[in-house]
Amino acid sequence: MFEIDRIFSQRNSKSGLMEWFFSAREGVLGPFENKAQAQNALKVFADFNIKNNDDGGRSSTGNIQMTLTPLIENGIRKR
Question: What does pTM read for this prediction?
Answer without folding.
Answer: 0.68
